[in-house]
Design goal:
Blueprint: H1 4-12, E1 13-18, E2 21-25, E3 28-32, H2 37-45, E4 56-59, H3 78-94, E5 97-99, H4 109-115, E6 124-127, E7 141-144, H5 147-156, E8 158-162, E9 165-172, H6 181-192, E10 200-205, H7 207-210, H8 214-223, E11 231-233, H9 238-244, H10 253-263, E12 276-281, E13 288-290, E14 298-300, H11 311-320, E15 335-338, H12 346-356, E16 366-369, H13 374-382, H14 385-392, E17 394-396, E18 417-420, E19 435-438, H15 441-450
Parallel strand pairs: 3-4, 3-6, 4-5, 6-7, 9-10, 9-12, 10-11, 15-16, 15-18, 16-17, 18-19
Antiparallel strand pairs: 1-2, 2-8, 13-14
Helix pairs in contact: 2-5, 6-8, 12-14, 12-15
This protein binds 3-isopropylmalic acid and iron/sulfur cluster (SF4).
Length: 459
């Protein structure tokens, strides 16, 4: 009797190192300009080479400018420019495929990888970025790693893995209007806390998960990292295979048939034991917003700013400049940001555009939309969504991480308050002294047009 996580682990274990650690084979490794340079430096220092260059892909995303530029010289930040150049040099030297700024496939790595058909059920996919769990939506064992592990994978195509405890989060019921996958994962995080899944491999299960599209499932697997989960998986079904099939890197012919057959075995055995079980009825969820500086400090939009339950809450309220008892919907915003690997896929942009159609961004609010990838951007443009965003007063930008972590020039100013479709509301995350409220893309759009946090169901 095994859980899906345990099956994926077993299938990739090269050898057991000790009770808690195994050596895993890595089918595919993704890297970015931000966390890979030191790994390559270490590799070079040790005089080692890349064992299997075809099993790696590099993508520029964290420092990408989102305004159109003609050449790398126009990347204003010298540090970012150097990271991009270093990645290109390392990829050229080791014959690793690179998706650079000017590549039509460029975008946030966790948006690009599934869109290219690289997230295969039953494979291990690692990347030096915590939100690599996104690919778990396809039944891949995927998670984020640190620099020394990147180096180890480059050299050996294996990695040491600390075995996790399996945890199941079951979503039952049907969501009400205006309730999205983002609200579901935010509700789970609010319930179990920012460490509630620490040390665990989460499996999302239940009818409400099965009813979501692949984009929504990716949002779940992506953001549960904010509850400390290291791995997130969903048993791949027909929808996962349909999403993958026909994409540029999806298998074809016999290889496809083999993958599809294998996918049907990728599910938790009945009777397998989870170390922790959580169940939530999504019918009881309302659209959520965060009020604090940790993703678990969230409440339904109709609620008030809560009384602090301890020093962390007091500090958060102080940073956020909020007073207990204040209705959340009265909080005024300066900026609206739709972007990130959590919520900048085509469905997210469609949901936001539906709210923005025929409306205008409120006076005094700066609103930007950063599609998750150039492909998503092109798709949105083909559907006329860019016109809706622009006519509403949103800036329609190029793709990348952008104001999700403000490592490029998209930075909020001190004291500015944001409605943001991202996944982290830490102090300074979107600019020093900037105040982030996390919510779904539709809720960001609603806040943008009213100028304050707003229940999207009331528009
Ligand atoms: C920069 C990178 C290491 C980081 C991560 O691992 O998640 C970033 O993507 C983030 O979202 O904070
Ligand atoms: S979009 Fe945000 S969360 Fe996702 S990889 Fe980039 S910085 Fe990290």
């Amino acid at each position: 009797m095994k859980t899906l996580y345990e099956k994926l682990l077993d299938a990739h274990t090269v050898r057991r190192i000790d009770d808690d650690t195994v050596l895993l084979y890595v089918d595919f490794h993704v890297m970015n300009e931000y966390t890979s340079p030191q790994a390559f430096a270490g590799l070079h220092e040790a005089g080692r080479s890349v064992r299997d260059p075809g099993r790696h892909l590099a993508i520029v995303d964290h420092v990408s400018p989102t305004r159109a530029i003609a050449s790398l010289d126009e990347v204003e930040d010298a540090g970012g420019r150097l990271q991009i150049e270093t990645l290109a040099e390392n990829c050229a030297r080791h014959e690793i495929e690179l998706i650079d700024l000017f590549d039509p496939r460029q975008g946030i790595e966790h948006v690009v990888v599934p869109d290219l058909g690289l997230a295969w059920p039953g494979t291990t996919i690692l990347c030096g970025d915590s939100h690599t769990t996104t690919y778990g939506a396809f039944g891949a064992l995927a998670y984020g790693i640190g620099t020394s592990e990147i180096e180890h994978i480059l050299a050996t195509q294996t990695v040491e893995h600390s075995v996790l405890k399996p945890m199941r989060i079951t979503l039952t019921g049907a969501p009400g209007a205006g309730v999205t996958a983002k609200d579901m994962v935010m509700a789970v995080i609010a319930r179990i806390g920012a460490n509630g899944a620490a040390g665990h491999a989460v499996e999302w299960d239940g009818p409400a998960v099965a009813a979501l599209g692949m984009e929504g499932r990716m949002t779940l697997c992506n953001m549960i990292v904010e509850a400390g989960a290291r791995v997130a998986v969903i048993a791949p079904d027909g929808m996962a295979l349909a999403h993958l099939g026909g994409r540029p890197h999806a298998p074809t012919g016999d290889a496809w048939d083999a993958l599809a057959a294998h996918a049907t075995t990728l599910r938790t055995d009945e009777g397998a034991v989870f170390a922790r079980e959580v169940e939530i009825d999504v019918a009881a969820i309302a659209p959520l917003v965060t009020w604090g500086t940790s993703p678990d400090q969230a409440a339904p939009i109709f609620a008030t700013v809560p009384d602090p339950r301890g020093d962390a809450d007091r500090r958060a309220l102080d940073y956020m400049d909020l007073v207990p008892g204040m209705p959340l919907h009265t909080i005024q915003i300066d900026r609206a940001f739709i972007g990130s690997c959590t919520n900048a896929r085509i469905e997210d942009l469609r949901a936001a555009a539906q709210i923005l159609r025929g409306r205008r961004v409120a006076d005094g609010v700066t609103a930007i939309c950063v599609p998750g990838s150039k492909a998503v951007r092109a798709q949105a443009e083909a559907e006329g969504l860019d016109a809706i965003f622009r006519e509403a007063g949103f800036e329609w930008r190029g793709s990348g991480c952008s104001m999700c972590l403000a490592m490029n020039d998209d930075v909020a100013a001190t004291g500015e308050r944001l409605a943001s479709s991202t996944n982290r509301n830490f102090e300074g995350r979107q600019g020093r002294g900037a105040r982030t409220h996390l919510m779904s893309p539709a809720m960001v759009a609603a806040a943008a047009v009213t100028g304050h946090l707003t229940d999207v169901r009331k528009l």
